[in-house]
Write a structure and sequence with these properties.
With 301 residues, the protein is α/β, with parallel strands linked by helices. The chain has one domain: 3-Layer(aba) Sandwich (Rossmann fold). The protein contains 13 helices and 8 strands. Strands 1-2-4-3-5-6-7-8 form an 8-stranded mixed sheet. The two termini are 28 Å apart.
């Protein structure tokens, strides 16, 4: 199956791009059934359009057309130094226009969650449903619920520290590709280990890792900064139905983020996934795809 995913990743449909109004190259992939119900998926950080490669055959079977774009600086998309979270809906709309898609669902994973909510807030007539997996919540609301120690840690985060962290993450991802899996798995969070033991999942992660460009670390640092800054909209402005999944064993984006989002979003439902870590989308992506596409008739929790 790993070789099949490699073949899919080389298809022209997985290596498309448009030029934006300000002259940037914006790269994207399409998975699943190209005549199916459209869903835009937004990858985590770091990541790129191949982060969702492993969902191709499921999306195809479900009759879903899944579009995944590289955010600026990731994959083959040009870096954009002045990027803000509220710029992302413009890029999404441009791709949708290029593909002739009027209405669509959105699915955000981890750092892609706020981008999905931004698309819903700024494109209310185009975004029909929202699915979130291990999504980050707004910093301002998290601070309100934080302890004094947590607030001090947040205040000590500098631009330099963000850049150092981003570079370290990229290096560690690259090192993971040369360390034998029996050794590498010892450093994986126990809650994520079962999913990472799957050879097909690791094969798609390898393809994603190979697409890390020269500016991936800058894009990651930018994502960190963007998500820590005011988002440019209120969660109360998201009127669409939002379904949230969060693993109880998530140590990267703690479950409090999902719980907070469910309280602040006016039309949301929350699925607490017991014993699962940050990679909750890896085990429940079919449910998330169906929800974003508004084709779900049952949900596993």
């Amino acid at each position: 199956m790993g070789s099949l995913f490699k073949e899919v990743s080389l298809r022209p449909s997985c290596n498309q791009f448009i030029n934006t109004g300000n002259g940037r190259k914006l790269s994207f992939a399409e998975y699943g059934q190209l005549s199916g119900k459209p869903v835009f998926a937004f990858h985590g950080a770091p990541g790129n359009r191949f982060q969702l490669l492993g969902t191709h055959f499921a999306a195809e079977e479900l009759g879903i057309r899944l579009i995944v774009a590289d955010r600026p600086g990731y994959g083959s998309s040009d870096y954009y130094s002045a990027r803000k979270l509220c710029d992302w809906p413009v890029d999404v709309g441009a791709i949708a226009d290029f593909l002739g898609i009027e209405r669509f669902g959105v699915w955000g994973i981890s750092a892609g969650g706020p981008h999905a909510l931004a698309a819903a807030a700024f494109l209310p007539d185009r975004v029909s449903r929202v699915a979130l997996a291990a999504s980050v919540a707004p910093r301002t609301h998290m601070e309100a619920a934080a302890s004094a120690q947590e607030l001090k840690a947040i205040e000590n985060i500098s631009a330099r520290k963000i850049k150092w962290t981003a570079n370290s993450w990229i290096v560690l991802r690259q090192l993971a590709s040369v360390v034998p899996w029996p050794i590498a798995r010892l450093f994986i969070n126990t809650a994520n280990r079962q999913l990472m033991d799957d050879k097909e999942f690791r094969a798609t992660r390898s393809i994603e890792r190979n697409e890390f460009g020269k500016r991936s670390a800058e894009a990651l640092a930018q994502d960190f900064s963007i998500l820590m800054a005011p988002w440019g909209f209120e969660l109360s402005e998201v009127s669409q139905e939002v379904t949230i999944w969060h693993g109880t064993a998530d140590t990267l984006v703690k479950p409090q983020h999902g719980e907070l989002l469910s309280k602040l979003l006016p039309n949301s439902s929350y699925h607490k996934v017991e014993g699962v870590g940050h990679l909750v989308a890896g085990s429940l992506y079919s449910d998330m795809l169906m929800t974003a596409a508004d084709t779900s008739d049952s949900l596993r929790t």
